[in-house]
Please model this.
Amino acid sequence: MPRPQTDVYKWPLLGNSLEALCYCLTTPFLYFITIFAVSAQLTTHESNSTSHTIRRWMTAIVCLACSLPCFVPAIFGQLLWVAVCYLLQPRQHFRYQEFPDDPLSQCKSSVNSFKSPCPSTVTFLTANVLLANEVFVSFNNNQSAAKRLPILVQRLLNQAPQINRTSNNLKLPRREDIVIDQIPDVDVVLWQEVFGKKLGSDLSKKLSSKYKYFIYYATRNTCDANFFCMDSGLFAASKFPIICADFKSFSFKNSYARLMDYGMLFIKLALGWREMDGRSIRCVGYITNLHTQAYQGDKPILVYQLEDVQRCSDEFIRKSTEEDELIVVNMIAGDLNADNMSPGDAATQNHKLYEKFTDVCRERPGKDHSWSIGTEMRQRTLHLPEVNNPLTFRDILLDDTKRRNYLLDADVKEQTYDLMYCNPVPDEDGIIYPKPWGGRRRIDQILVRKYDDSIPNYKPPTPRNIWFSSSFAGLSDHIPVVMEVSLLDGKN
Model:
């Protein structure tokens, strides 16, 4: 597979010019209609005073009036965009950016990417951050994406390397060591729900002081993928060079998901070289960032999507691995929208994917280790002061009773929109008590592939640390998960 290209189109000048024209034609209408929709819908962050409500409705009426003359140009711009996607078919289904320390030494081939020794450990972070059009942000009862973005960047970059120097002993860990209020030193960032080209590009630039290689706006933009509407929202930032990448849409979706390109972003990283048997070996890592569909209802959508993950990730490895490379990382991370304890997720808990991949928080299908916690928050609590402070939120996550008020319980029978509004169910005496499944709906996961002789030259990494971080308190309705793995000490 060829290296990712910064120019998506074969004819960059024509393609980029037409894209810019489409953007100019559609943006005014989307801008006014977004303000109208957001002004008409209050979130729990906002005041319900009469004057505030009147001001919002006046804004809504003005923006609706302004959107009307922009409607026809927006329709023309969208039709032009469809034509661009069909006639100027892009050579890759994602946008790629790199920010080398020395622009003159940009890597022009995969060989030049292996200029450093392979590290002994690599750390990954996954989080759903909901950076999207304000209509969707408001619908999820979160604060403005524009307001949260710089704070998210600041907290991500404010990393604490001293955390990496200790081991939380995955054989018998303590929850005090697992739940932290900072971010360790992270090598690869995998975010979900970073929607749009501009947002992805802006985020890449803001993170370029620490990370040099970025992929965002992963989408196919076809009728069957997303009806030319929203992209996948998958975003990746890496310290290591990205040798190649690919994006695949999920084969099965329903309901609202037909307008969103839910799918899988596959990345091959150049981790460096290692001396073995008297010669230098190139060490590579394969990472899959994914976001499965939420609120699948009574349809087994997630089962089909996990089958896509297993099949497509294996295919990506087969197509991109070279004979003189040693695979030292093969991981899957993202928002799986299913936990390992809820009765309604039994089909995914017993999926064959978990036979090939290790989930360190999982004791067996249907039961997590007692030290693990949930990662999906109750969206109606996002405005509360105690949830907006990493220190106080960490204390909540450690408390088996308090946590139930802010994180969803792992007792979900069916994934419906009721999960957005439900409260913890008290006992008969009206009191909320600790439960084995209380506040433990863990849908954000990092999975490590076990030894597999079907993958040539694969030496599996060893999970060393797992952390749940409260650092994004008040900025997302998901808890970030971080994993550190040791390289080249697994089975042969």
Remarks:
- The mean pLDDT is 93.
